[in-house]
Specification:
The protein is α+β, with helices and mostly antiparallel strands and about 200 residues long. It has 6 helices and 8 strands. It has a single domain, classed as C8orf32 fold (Roll), CATH 3.10.620. About 35% of the residues lie in helices and about 20% in strands. It starts with a helix and ends in a 13-residue tail after the last strand.
């Protein structure tokens, strides 16, 4: 991992731990009420051509080293992405190595980074294309969770698209369990494994 990326990740983790510790009561009562679904089979969804630098970034997301990603750790990772990489309008969904090298990407690029990190740790997650009708206009991550009774979260009960049936929450940039760049009038139009999007031309944009 390059020294600049490593330094930014370490600083982001430190700052986020401080901020999250100050709001521990909030996170205990809100974020910790959802539990992610694990399935090692999804690790194949990221492909086998990611660099060691990117894989190390994904490993570092497991801050406490317990082999899992908590909602708090996901929030720290999303904050790091949001604060260290910029939205760049481009015609393809960037491979994670290109996203890091170029300093960002479009919404698909951010969603691919998040989904790949979660899949790397065995969490069931996909990139979802959203539209006002059926046309993809925005991409974000959807993550499978064990139940749909946590207050304050937006849940989707999904079947089809080759997904494991069940409950999913959105991760839209640094918003976990809700929508940030779009509103609830937007609906899921397509679902992808991240490796199927690398360098793929963005349709319907």
């Amino acid at each position: 991992m390059s020294s600049s990326i490593k330094y930014r990740l370490i600083i982001a983790i430190i700052l986020n731990i401080v901020c999250l510790s100050a709001s521990a009561q909030y996170y205990h009562g809100y974020h910790q009420r959802v539990t992610f679904v694990y399935d090692n089979a999804v690790k194949e969804n990221i492909g086998d051509d990611l660099s060691e630098e990117v894989l190390q970034i994904f490993r570092n997301a497991d801050i406490n080293g317990d082999g899992k990603i908590s909602v708090r750790e996901l929030q720290i990772f999303q904050n790091w992405l949001q604060h260290n990489f910029r939205y760049i309008k481009n015609s393809t969904a960037r491979h994670p190595d290109d996203f890091i090298r170029e300093g960002g990407g479009n919404c698909e690029g951010f969603a691919v980074m998040t989904t790949c990190m979660l899949n790397y740790h065995g969490i069931v997650a996909f990139v979802a294309g959203f539209g006002r009708v059926t046309t993809n206009r925005h991409a974000l991550t959807i993550v499978q969770v064990t139940n749909n009774n946590a207050p304050g979260y937006l849940f989707y009960t999904l079947r089809g698209w080759g997904l494991p049936p069940g409950y999913y929450i959105p991760v839209d940039y640094d918003k976990i369990g809700g929508l940030k760049a779009i509103d609830r009038r937007w609906k899921i139009a397509a679902v992808y494994k991240p490796k199927s999007l690398y360098w793929r031309y963005r349709l319907n944009y």
